[in-house]
Amino acid sequence: MMKEMISERLKKVILRELDLDDFDIVESTSADMVPGWDSLNHARVIAAVEDEFGIRFRTLELIALRNVGELQELIDKQNRDRP
Amino acid sequence: MPFNSLQYFLFLPSVLLLFHFTRDRWRWVVLLLGSLGFYAALGDPYLLAALATVTMTTYVLGIRIGGTRSPRGKTALLWIGIAINLLVLISMKILHSMTVTGNPSPSGIGRLDLFPATGSILAIGVSYYTIQAISYLVDIYLETGEAESHPGRFALYLSVFPKILQGPIERGRDLIPQLRSPYVFDYAGARVGMLRIAGGLFKKMVIADRLAQYVNPVYDNVHAYSGVVFIVATYLYALQIYYDFSGYTDIALGSARLFGIRLTENFRNPYTATSIADFWRRWHISFSRWILDYIFRPLQMKFRHGGTGGTAVALILTFLASGFWHGFGWGFVVWGLLHGLFLACSVYYKPHQRSIYQKLAVTAGWKSAIWQRFITFHLVCLAWIFFRANSITDAGYILTHMFTGTGKIARLLTSHERLEIWICVLSLGIMAFLYHLGNRRDKWDYLFSKPAAVRWCFYYATALYILMFGKYFSPQTFIYGKF
């Protein structure tokens, strides 16, 4: 249940940053599938996700990201590792 | 040996025949020995030492990174690999610039006679295979690629002769699987390969080397000229460097295709770009993808909390690095900086582009596309001035004198036989026609659908055209072979 709420929260952040009303974002969604999610907006989306969840990713973790599912996993991992 | 030499056209079929008639299990040996012989023919032992160092260290580190579980261990090995490759790259570039006649070193030290036989240490190819090796290691680290365990195949990945001198810069996951696959003679592929080689020779020997004879007198002696002649020479240089480098790329891709290897396309009509970002998606594509993936993206992530400013800084630093990669000269640095600044400005401009167009009542269509292409081409040409000029002061002189009259343009254009201009115009017209044809359909399919008599007329006409109008007695070295 917690993961599903987080996913909805993640989806809202992405849509807000890309100025989209709606888009079907699933685990396998990659940036090139989403309108406006280009390399220039990518950093802004990631920064907004970090601010939304109060976390900070390592740069190398972000470079290896391939889709929204892996981003969700990184968020979950950070939440699990929190004291 | 350069691609536009007789030796290459004795070497290529010899290696190909030997490759074809060798058992598949040992074909990699033939190709590797051929590639090393090709590189050794440049006559500079430092080059072979550089290639050996990069090959051996990257091979070992690739396997170690792939086999190490500890994140810290992997990171340390990656940084060692990057450092070794950058050390080789920078050392060879410094040695080259310190030993080239008449070219003072960045530190002000005079010319070093380390290799008096040729007078200078070459650095051909080093810029390409070192960054290719870095991409190989990073991809293993990020688990987007895997280490190659066969040392010969790995050596071939870095040194295969069609791409060793000037790229394309190939990713491991694109090239290594092809080297593993059994070779099967493909008539259609070989035919396209040979036509691409012919196309490359046409671009290099007929067009680029011919344009050079108009560009070089102006750029090598700027104080003898002023006015519009600088603009004309810059336009001609823009064409020269494109046909020179894309000509090399065609020969490289065509040669590789004969061996059943498909290398990455490096150009996609770059002067039709509608923005600088679009230009870099069309020019030296394998290199721009490399700097995007391995310099810009990490920097952009590092500066992600800087907002648009962070992205702008990442772009400027990326293209500064690009300038240094081309050479340790202020001209290259300014060229790279200009492209970085153009892109940084576009980051601020792009979000407002739509509203600006609405206020100016500009609608998307062929007129706005032409305007965008016009502006983009001229921004690119502005940067080319610094790229080509022999010094910053020469570039400054060009910029401050390009609108002071017509300045000897007639003398420049008549400095060679009038026939030369007509050959230029005709050849560029043929290229324009092929571009237009390529937009409507696959031009190879179009050619191969014609009857044999028509096809062979085309083949013979092309060969005859190159033989008659190619520049043989004043051949220019490939421009991007200097980087």
Account of the protein in words:
The complex is a heterodimer of chains A (83) and B (483). By secondary structure, chain A is mostly helical. Chain A has a single domain (2-81), classed as Orthogonal Bundle (Non-ribosomal Peptide Synthetase Peptidyl Carrier Protein, Chain A). Helix content of chain A is 60%, strand content 0%. Chain A has 4 helices and no strands. In chain A, α1 packs across α2 (39-53). The radius of gyration of chain A is 12 Å and the shape is globular. The two termini of chain A are 21 Å apart. Mean pLDDT of chain B is 87; it is low at 101-119. Chain B is 71% helix and 0% strand. The longest helix of chain B is centred in the middle third of the chain and has 33 residues, at 187-219. Chain B is mainly α and 483 residues long. Chain B is globular. At the A-B interface, α2 and α3 of A face α12 and α13 of B.
The largest interface is: A-B, 13 and 19 residues
Shape of chain B: globular
Mean pLDDT of chain A: 84
Count of individual domains of chain B: 2
Question: Strand-and-helix sequence of chain B, N→C?
Answer: HHHHHHHHHHHHHHHHHHHH
How far do the termini of chain A sit from each other?
21 Å
The name of the CATH architecture of chain A is Orthogonal Bundle
Compact summary:
The complex is a heterodimer of chains A (83) and B (483). Chain A has helices at residues 2-17, 39-53, 59-63, 68-81.
Tags for this model:
heterodimer; A: 83 residues; mainly alpha; 4 helices; B: 483 residues
